[in-house]
């Protein structure tokens, strides 16, 4: 019984910050529902880019198939216990996770773009030292700004103290990506931001597959599903 209980413990995440030569770009926005569509459109605008857009893993069954791989809750827990995710989160009663294949792409020097909540960025600092957060902000978001908790905090404690408090929560290398509020302008703004990151890095990532290891059972099948295209 002790051995069975021990096998159910969550495996520690693989920390490889020192060996990571890649760049991880996390895209977030006030309206998370449109992010997958934006990333798909941006990927099509950048056909010659070295950026990889891997799919995340989820227990949600009605998500976009080009952005998510749907699995059962039992399999999600099994993969999580096996250390098969670099980060996980929960939203609207569903589980989400970025697969370990993202880590392999980063080790190989690749540039990876994912859509995820801003709150998970701090958990990714140990995975890759070069983590960027692109926060999309449209005109409607600007109109709502005075009503947000941060805006209320500024009015209560003053702008200087509010900036100090926000700096503790804000991940490093955070860039606001403003747009006009419609889908074409958001796609254009996101594409231009990704191009700037690629130019800043100078050397595009190769996106090479990592050496294959022997695996068993459903976890092995999951790893094959989430492998980068070059490895398939």
Q: Could you describe the 3D structure shown?
A:
- The chain is of the alpha/beta class and 232 residues long.
- Helices cover 38% and strands 19% of the residues.
- The chain has nine helices and nine strands.
- A five-stranded parallel β-sheet has the order 2-7-1-8-9, with helices on both faces. Strands 4-3-6-5 form a four-stranded mixed β-sheet.
- Strand 5 and strand 6 form a beta hairpin.
- Helix 2 crosses helix 8 and helix 6 packs across helix 7.
- The radius of gyration is 19 Å and the shape is globular.
- 29% of the residues are buried.
Which descriptors would you attach to this protein?
9 helices; 19% strand; 232 residues; four-stranded mixed beta sheet; 9 strands; five-stranded parallel beta sheet; alpha/beta; disordered N terminus
Write the layout of secondary structure elements.
Elements: H1 2-7, E1 23-29, H2 35-45, E2 51-52, E3 56-58, E4 68-70, H3 73-81, E5 85-91, E6 94-99, H4 100-107, E7 111-115, E8 131-137, H5 139-144, H6 149-157, H7 159-169, E9 174-178, H8 183-201, H9 217-225
Parallel strand pairs: 1-7, 1-8, 2-7, 3-4, 8-9
Antiparallel strand pairs: 3-6, 5-6
How many DSSP H or I helices?
Answer: 9
Number of strands: 9
Unreliable stretches (pLDDT < 50, length at least 5) are: 1-9, 140-148, 204-215
* Spatial strand order of the main sheet: 2-7-1-8-9
Which structural class should the secondary elements be placed in? alpha/beta
How far is the N terminus from the C terminus?
Answer: 39 Å
The helix/strand series, from N terminus to C terminus, equals HEHEEEHEEHEEHHHEHH
Shape field: globular
Which radius of gyration do the C-alpha atoms yield?
A: 19 Å
Fraction of residues in H or I helices:
25-40%
Residue-averaged pLDDT, rounded?
A: 76
- Strand content is 15-25%
> Main beta sheet, described?
5 strands, parallel
């Amino acid at each position: 019984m002790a051995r069975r209980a021990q096998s159910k413990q969550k495996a520690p995440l693989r920390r490889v910050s020192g060996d990571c030569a890649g760049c991880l770009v996390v895209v977030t926005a006030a309206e998370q529902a449109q992010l997958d569509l934006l990333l798909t459109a941006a990927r099509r605008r950048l056909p010659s880019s070295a950026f990889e857009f891997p799919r995340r893993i989820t227990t949600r069954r009605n998500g976009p198939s080009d952005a998510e791989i749907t699995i059962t809750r039992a399999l999600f827990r099994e993969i999580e216990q096996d250390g098969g995710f670099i980060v996980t989160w929960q939203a609207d009663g569903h589980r989400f996770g970025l697969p370990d294949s993202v880590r392999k792409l980063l080790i190989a020097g690749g540039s990876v773009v994912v859509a995820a909540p801003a709150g998970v960025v701090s958990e990714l600092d140990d995975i890759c030292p070069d983590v960027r957060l692109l926060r999309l902000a449209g005109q409607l978001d600007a109109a709502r700004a005075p009503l947000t908790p941060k805006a209320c905090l500024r009015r209560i404690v003053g702008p200087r103290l509010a900036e100090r408090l926000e700096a503790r929560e804000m991940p490093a290398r955070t860039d606001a990506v403003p747009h006009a509020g419609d889908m074409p302008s958001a796609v254009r703004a996101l594409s231009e931001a990704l191009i700037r990151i690629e130019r800043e890095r100078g050397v595009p990532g190769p996106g090479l597959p990592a050496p294959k290891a022997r695996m068993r059972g459903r976890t092995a099948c999951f790893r094959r599903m989430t492998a980068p295209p070059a490895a398939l």
